[in-house]
Amino acid sequence: MGLDSDALALIAKVRKAHGENSITLASNIAAGSYITSGSLALDVALGGGWPVNKWTEIIGQESHGKTTIVLKTIAANQALDPAFTTLWIAAEHYNKERAEELGVDNDRVIVIPTQAMEFAYQTILEFAASRTVDCIVLDSYPALVASEEAEKDMAEAVMAVGARLTGKFFRKVGEAMIRSMDGNDRAITCFFINQWRDAIGQYSPRGTPKTSPGGKAKNYSFWCRVEITRDEFIDEARPGKGKVRVGQVIKLKTVKNKSAPPQRIASVDFYFGDAPVLGFSVGDYDLAKEFLVYAVLYDVIRRGGAIYTYGDRKWKGKDELLASIREEVDLQEELRAKILIEAAKPDSERMRELESA
């Protein structure tokens, strides 16, 4: 049933006063879009990847992989799009050499080294509205200092000024990030890197209660909140030399997600050092392992005992299949596309398809 004439007249009036894109039918809004994280496991957990035109908070303890995950995201999207550009607010040090190891083209990263909170937020507002970059990263919030705090002596207390400014920033940045509802506009993906703090005096049924600095107002503005923890280290056995620590398993949990069910968990094998015996270099993910796990989980690849079947192809044993995935880029792309399609289907639909197959 269509809209009545009065509603259509009001729509025309609003458009005349506020612009063509100020109002539209929900059916005309472009479907939500995403950029890849560079990890299939994380893309599945997120519901397709990082949501565009939205803010995502990356939270965790120090040295667990927060900045690494964001740099790997940038590298993956630079590889897909030669025009992909990033604004990086380096409240902490931007490690140029480390970024290069992870595959980032530093010529497409604009770095602003500042701890001044007001300057950082104002710059983000201007770049978000300008449509000149595809990604904005704030690394990290705890390193920012508000001018009111910076101007006072160490003995003078300053309460919640950062939280107040951050709440104000997120109320203002929404307008700067508005894009055409038909999807024909340069999208932007934004990351707010943060750290857990103990919530003194609060209660938690499991472990120490935690909170992320910056106040509670910001949490309503995040489309996704992802917690990053180091699950375990990866050691490589080298003949005659013992074991060498070459990587870590990074566990990612979607604390909040408005695009897909929350509390999903992804595990990523990340190599921070060379692993010649295992066949990995500095900065690598073990993507073949992710493809195998999710292809079997979503029945893109069928497993019968030690035999793996995909279409008219068969492999005997996991190692043989992993070798093919690592060597064949076309096979990776096919598997990725099919896995994301299957992962997006409701479980009931997938079960019906399996029963009828």
Question: How does this structure look, described?
Answer:
This protein has 357 residues and is α/β, with parallel strands linked by helices. The chain has two domains: 31-225, Rossmann fold (3-Layer(aba) Sandwich); 287-347, Rec A Protein, domain 2 (2-Layer Sandwich). Helices cover 34% and strands 24% of the residues. The protein is built from eleven helices and 15 strands. It has an eight-stranded mixed beta sheet with strand order 5-4-6-7-3-10-11-12, sandwiched between helices. It has a three-stranded antiparallel beta sheet with strand order 13-14-15, covered by helices on one side. β10 (222-238) and β11 (242-257) form a beta hairpin. α5 (117-130) packs parallel to α7. The longest helix has 16 residues, at 161-176. The radius of gyration is 23 Å and the shape is globular.
Distance separating the two termini: 37 Å
- Strand tally, please? 15
Helical content class:
25-40%
SSE order, one letter for each helix or strand: HEHEEHEHEHEHHEEEEEEHEEEHHH
Question: Describe the biggest sheet?
Answer: 8 strands, mixed
Architecture of the largest domain, CATH level 2? 3-Layer(aba) Sandwich
Mean pLDDT: 92
User: What radius of gyration results from the CA coordinates?
Assistant: 23 Å
